[in-house]
Structures are given as C-alpha cells and as structure tokens.
C-alpha cells in the first residue's frame, strides 16, 4: 500500500487538483453569499414572510425536480461541458440580480441589440416578480451544476488520489459554510445602508456581484482542467425514468432504508423548510444581517466540529445503535429549537445554532457512512439522488407554507411548535418503527 504522506504530496503537485481546488473554493464562497443575501433582499424589500417562503421554494423546487435529468445529461455528455454551461448561466442570472438591486425603483435599460434597447420601470411589484424569476433560474442551473460537479472529479484525478481529493473538497465546503455567512454579514455591514429599494442595497449588490464573479473565475479555472479519463462508451441505455424507477424499487425493498427515508422525508416536509424561513426572520428581529451571518456562521462551525468528532472519535462516541442514536439526536435538536424564538440577543441565538450544528454534523457523517456501506456500488448514484431529493424537494413545500403560517402565528410559536413536532416524530419513530434497531453495519 502506498505511503499516505507520499500520496498527499503527489496530490498537491497535481495541476488538475490545483485548478479544481481553486475554482471550488471561489465558487463555494460565492454560493454562501447568495444564500445569505437573497433571503435578506426579499425581507428588506417586502417585509413579507410569505414572499420569502415563495422565493426559497422557487429556487429549491426546480433544483429538486430536474436534478435527476441533470444527472442523466452528465452521463450522456461531458461533465466538464455541463458544469461550464451551468456556471455561465449562474453568472448571467446573478449579474441581472446585481443590476436589479443597484437600480432599485425607477428605471433600468436592457439592450436588446445595437439599435434597440428597452427601458423598464421597476415598481416594487415588478421588482419582486423579477426576483421570483431569477430565483427559479438559479435553482434550475443548480440542478445541472450539482451532478456535473460531483462527476468531474473521477475523470480529472488519478484513482489513487481520489479519496484524498474528495476529502479536501468536502472539508473546504463545510469551512465555506462557516466563512461565507460571516463574509456576507461583513459586506452588508460595511457597504450597506444605501438608498434605494432596500436599505442594504449596496451591500447586497456587492454580495451578488461577488458570487457572479466567482462563477466566472471558477469557469476559467475549470477550463484549465484536463480530462484524463473519458466517459465510457454508453452501453445499451434504458430510459432515464426507468433507471430512476430501479433506484426507487431498490430503496423500497430495503426495509430499514425505506423506513429511514420515509422518516427523513417527513421531518424535511414539516421541519426543514420551516427553519429555512424562520431563521432569517429571527435574525431580522435581532438587529439585522450581521445577526444572520453570526447565526449561520455559528451553525457552520458547529457542523464542522460535529463532523470532526464523528471522523476522529466516532467509535468512542457511539453510545447506541445507529438508529437509536439518530432518533435521540433528533429529539435533542428539537429541544434546542424550542427556545430559539424567545431569545433576545444575537449571541444566544448563535449558541443554540452552534449546538444544533454539532448534532447535525455528527449525524451527517454517520448517515452517509451507513448509506455507503448499505447500498450496492452500482446503485449508489441513484440512492444518493433519492436521498438528496428528500431534502431538496420536500423542504421547499414547507418553506412556502411557513411564509403563510407566519402571518397567523408568532415566530416564537413557530419555533416551539417545530421543536415539539421534531421531538414527537423522533419518539413515535422510536416506539413504532424498526429504526431504533438499525445498526451501522449492513444487515
């Protein structure tokens, strides 16, 4: 077996890895800025939680619905080509969003050709409609960017370096979830408070503009990558829908996996989307964008700590079977959610988000390891696509419903209710399903 130290040294000298690493870091930071800035833009523009939930849903639903089609296109074409096109599409959409924020009320001019231009009056209603359309476009582009981004690595990195390369990029992705929100909060705090549609227009424009530039720069770094392993010639192919059906049948026939997927889907539907709306609203009530960045940064730091604990102390921290530990941690997370709506200081919210992040990061490692051990290699892509669909497809439904719900109940009631529901779901799953008996090893 090769010396791991020598392998890491060889990986650092690999030009393809260097270009993928540079582009990945730039793009991940930009994505985090948009995740903070877009909800903040909607809140500052409308103050309407229903509009916020709808924007999140419009960005998430096309990503979930088309991600399987995106994966099929990646298999039939070059992952590099599909990823490059998705980056350019995202750059165009974010450039339009930047211009929209900078123009604010009044007019904006769109040049259709050298001899024809169109001047559009941007009323608040039209501005919101354009944000809806751009959010939908961003989600659609991500549906093709996500599968192509996860497929290019095996074609650009030597097989003996693949595990180390994936590990570095996964760690950096989580680190970006810590740094990105803090960077977004800093941009809004330093460059915010301008006049226009929203008080923080300049800071928001900086955030969207940075993300636009990050896609262009990462597209350039991607162009420097040389594909080493061409995709295999397509064997007799079944239809995309039939392939998806085979994956669904595999999950359904595996009773422990089916039970876990149903449980995760139920939690995502009732809790996941609700928190996507509730947390920005809470930050808005706790002094603004800086608080949102602090909360999300604390959650990212907690997730990173939880992942590190699972990776280094996993066996020592394992106090029960995989299933029982999953349900117990969900129950504790529910208890931590309950007081979030009643906090009066940003540091209190950050502490709770840090604790929730630790639990989330710890279980993410355990869940992915369990799936990788359980699913046959030839079905891994479809199983993981179904797993991703659970969170990308169901959470937006509750996000949209939560926006409406917050017009009838208080934020504190939402957090308390969400925590109670999560505790109740975990307790019911422990009492009435076989999840508590699932072990970490294949059965």
Describe the overall structure.
With 443 residues, this protein is mainly alpha-helical. It contains 15 helices and two strands. It folds into two domains: 1-230, MFS general substrate transporter like domains (Growth Hormone, Chain: A, Up-down Bundle), CATH 1.20.1250.20; 247-443, MFS general substrate transporter like domains (Growth Hormone, Chain: A), CATH 1.20.1250.20. The protein has helices at 4-13, 15-46, 49-76, 79-103, 124-151, 153-156, 162-191, 201-223, 240-253, 255-285, 289-317, 322-337, 346-374, 380-405, 411-432, and strands spanning 106-111, 117-122. Strands 1-2 form a two-stranded antiparallel ribbon. A hairpin with a 5-residue loop joins strand 1 and strand 2 (117-122). Helix 3 (49-76) runs parallel beside helix 5, helix 7 (162-191) packs antiparallel against helix 8 and helix 10 runs antiparallel to helix 11.
**Assembly type:** single chain
CATH architecture label name of the largest domain: Up-down Bundle
CATH class of the largest domain: Mainly Alpha
Mean pLDDT figure: 76
Helices and strands, in order, run as HHHHEEHHHHHHHHHHH
| Number of alpha- plus pi-helical segments | 15
Instruction: Detail the poorly predicted runs.
Output: 105-123, 194-198, 231-236
What sort of overall outline do the alpha carbons produce when their principal axes are compared? globular
**Percent in helix:** over 70%
Distance between the termini: 30 Å
Assigned CATH superfamily of the largest domain = MFS general substrate transporter like domains
Cα radius of gyration in angstroms: 22 Å
Number of domains: 2
CATH topology of the largest domain: Growth Hormone, Chain: A
Going across the biggest sheet, name each strand in turn: 1-2
């Amino acid at each position: 077996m090769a010396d791991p130290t020598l392998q890491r040294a060889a990986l650092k000298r690999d030009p393809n890895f260097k270009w993928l690493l540079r582009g990945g870091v730039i793009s991940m930071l930009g994505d985090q800025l948009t995740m903070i800035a877009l909800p903040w833009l909607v809140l500052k523009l409308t103050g309407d939680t229903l509009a916020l939930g709808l924007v999140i849903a419009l960005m998430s639903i096309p990503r979930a619905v088309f991600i399987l089609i995106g994966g099929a296109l990646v298999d039939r074409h070059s992952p590099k080509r599909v990823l490059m096109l998705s980056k350019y599409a995202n750059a165009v959409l974010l450039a339009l969003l930047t211009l929209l924020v900078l123009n604010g009320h009044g007019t904006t001019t769109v040049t259709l050709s050298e001899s024809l231009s169109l001047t559009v009056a941007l009323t608040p209603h039209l501005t919101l409609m354009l944000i809806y359309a751009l959010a939908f476009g961003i989600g659609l582009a991500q549906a093709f960017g996500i599968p192509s981004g996860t497929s290019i690595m095996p074609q650009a990195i030597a097989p003996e370096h693949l595990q180390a390369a994936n590990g570095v990029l996964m760690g950096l992705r989580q680190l970006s979830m810590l740094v990105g929100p803090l960077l977004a909060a800093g941009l809004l705090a330093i460059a915010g408070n301008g006049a226009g549609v929203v008080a923080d227009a300049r800071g928001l424009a900086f955030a969207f503009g940075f993300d636009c530039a990050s896609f262009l720069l990462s597209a350039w770094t991607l162009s420097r990558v040389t594909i080493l392993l061409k995709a295999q010639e397509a064997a007799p192919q079944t239809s995309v829908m039939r392939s998806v059906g085979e994956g669904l049948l595999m999950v359904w026939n595996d009773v422990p996996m089916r039970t876990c997927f149903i449980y995760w889907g139920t939690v995502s539907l009732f809790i996941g989307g609700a928190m996507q709306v509730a947390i920005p609203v809470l930050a808005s009530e706790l002094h603004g964008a800086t608080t949102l960045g602090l909360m999300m940064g604390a959650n990212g730091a907690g997730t990173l700590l939880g992942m590190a604990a699972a990776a280094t102390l996993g066996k020592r921290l394992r106090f029960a079977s995989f299933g029982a530990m999953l349900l117990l941690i969900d129950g504790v997370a529910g208890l931590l959610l309950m007081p979030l709506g009643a906090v009066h200081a940003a540091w209190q919210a950050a502490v709770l988000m840090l604790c929730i992040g630790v639990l989330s990061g710890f279980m993410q490692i355990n869940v992915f390891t369990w799936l990788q051990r359980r699913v046959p290699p030839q079905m891994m892509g479809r199983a993981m696509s179904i797993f991703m669909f659970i969170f990308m497809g169901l959470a937006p439904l509750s996000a949209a419903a939560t926006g409406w719900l917050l017009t009838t109940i208080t934020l504190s009631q939402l957090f308390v209710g969400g925590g109670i529901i999560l505790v109740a779901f975990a307790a019911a799953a422990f009492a009435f399903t076989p999840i508590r008996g699932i072990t970490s090893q294949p059965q």
